[in-house]
Write a structure and sequence with these properties.
Helices cover 86% and strands 0% of the residues. The protein is mainly α and 455 residues long. The longest helix has 37 residues, at 277-313. The chain is globular. The two termini are 42 Å apart.
């Protein structure tokens, strides 16, 4: 006998779905706020420095691109830490979760010191590689060298954010991100204009704000250690060589995944540049909006990392599978909604970014392709987060390398056959379809469902 409509909406399965909905929303909404707040650091710098002059703004653009690259390739510090800590939370071992988190923070500090050792002496050469003009290069070098002093703090913030996400707390990272953005904006204005330090003042403001954020996170982690470790809390905060090496091993596949994704985006930009000035301008606008939409979808992925890790740590494979299915449904729904919004806004978007009618003509069909691909992106981001939460990093690395092998020939064929920007974004959609195929096959296989406090 089939269940009635009322039974389908009030039975045990509906209750589980509602619980998963509450978990997803509780984690995803604050995570989205924190993700959106992070780019505001660069926007605040740009708004303040832009009034100093064109050369200063150009220098900031080059230095900010280098800094963003240097920090983003280590985003595995957040992802791997989230999964590892969430497993121990699910297993009911909060002291071990705190120790795991501290290992990630120590690894972040070590990597930050290594990056400083490269960037400080190599800043002029790095700026030159990015093609800064002779007028912008001195400003870029100044900003890069000063801001590099904040890289250890930036990486520690990534790792500490992963700790709190693993502890099922995305609200604290939101508060810290908003507080850091507010402090950064105030410090930049005061140091650039009030103290008359110019672009150096903007860099120092960012360094101070990032170190303050890292200090707040450390205070939160130390408080958690004192609460859950008892009288031995100080020992949990000391560096453990074996634990740090384990974090590095867990993060290495995710580093490969991230570098491969960066390579895909660089190839797309290089191809767009070969198509002409109009196409690269339209491509940059399209990529900006694509990235903005990715923040919303990535928030669900972050929730997936924390939730899946907790279920697997609690030896609840059925709960993990059910949560995965529900998050895929959320991904599809959000992708459809975002796609409709972008399709409706596409005819108007060009005027916000450019006054060139040629850019508008090139932009519109590319944006419509992006709008059509959003449901695909929704599932890709969710499954990416699920597999990260499961600690399935090696598969993610190999899957992304396979995706690069599919995308590169398709993208390079665009200028070879005289196609335009719309074709390039169809190639980007092909890239997302390749990612979807690899992730979907893995999700269906169930091989990611490995339970226990550690994978």
């Amino acid at each position: 006998m089939k269940p009635s409509a009322r039974q389908r909406t009030t039975g045990p399965r509906a209750s589980v779905r509602r619980r998963h909905d509450r978990e997803i929303l509780a984690l995803a909404l604050p995570a989205f706020g924190a993700l959106v707040a992070e780019p505001l650091f660069v926007m605040a710098d740009s708004a303040v420095v832009g009034h100093l002059g064109t050369a200063q703004l150009a220098g900031l653009g080059v230095a900010a691109a280098l800094l963003t690259t240097a920090v983003n390739i280590f985003v595995f510090l957040a992802y791997a830490t989230t999964a590892a800590v969430a497993r121990r939370v699910g297993a009911g071992d909060l002291p071990a979760a705190i120790r795991q988190g501290m290992d990630g923070i120590w690894l972040a500090l070590l990597l930050g010191v290594l990056v400083i050792a490269v960037v400080l002496p190599g800043a002029p050469a790095l700026v030159d590689v990015f093609g800064a003009s002779h007028t912008a290069a001195p400003y870029a070098t100044t900003y890069l060298r000063i801001s590099a002093l904040g890289i250890p703090a930036m990486l520690m913030v990534l790792a500490a954010t992963g700790v709190l996400r693993g502890l099922q707390d995305t609200r604290t990272p939101l508060y810290v991100a908003v507080g850091g953005f507010t402090a950064n904006a105030g410090l930049n204005a005061g140091l650039v204009y009030g103290a008359g330090l110019g672009i150096a003042g903007s860099a120092w403001g960012t360094v101070i704000a990032q170190n303050a954020m890292a200090a707040v996170y450390l205070w939160v982690v130390v408080r958690g250690a004192r609460k859950h470790q008892g009288g031995n809390w100080w020992a949990a905060l000391k560096p453990d060589a074996a634990g740090i090496r384990a974090c590095a091993r867990a993060g290495a596949p995710l580093l490969v995944r991230t570098l491969t994704l960066r390579a895909i985006l660089l190839i797309a930009t290089a191809v767009a540049a070969r198509l002409g000035d109009t196409e690269i301008a339209a491509h940059q606008i399209t990529l900006t909006l694509w990235s903005l939409l990715a923040f919303a979808l990535d928030a669900i992925a972050i929730a997936g990392q924390a939730i899946i890790g907790r279920y697997l740590g609690a030896d609840d494979p059925e709960g993990a599978r059910a949560a995965c299915q529900r998050m895929v449904e959320w991904g599809v729904a959000c992708g459809v909604g975002l796609g409709i919004l972008l399709a409706l806004a596409a005819p108007l978007v060009g005027r916000l970014f450019s006054s060139d009618p040629a850019v508008h003509r090139a932009l519109l069909p590319a944006l419509l392709v992006v709008a059509l691909s959003q449901p695909i992106s929704g599932v890709v981001f969710v499954l990416d987060g699920v597999l990260m939460g499961a600690g399935d990093g090696p598969y993610l690395a190999w899957s992304m390398l396979a995706t690069l092998a599919v995308f590169a020939p398709a993208a390079l064929a665009v200028p070879a056959f005289g196609w335009g920007l719309t074709a390039l974004w169809w190639a980007m959609t092909l890239m997302m379809l390749a990612r979807l195929a690899g992730l979907w096959l893995r999700a269906r296989s169930g091989r990611w469902v490995v339970t226990g406090a550690a994978r």
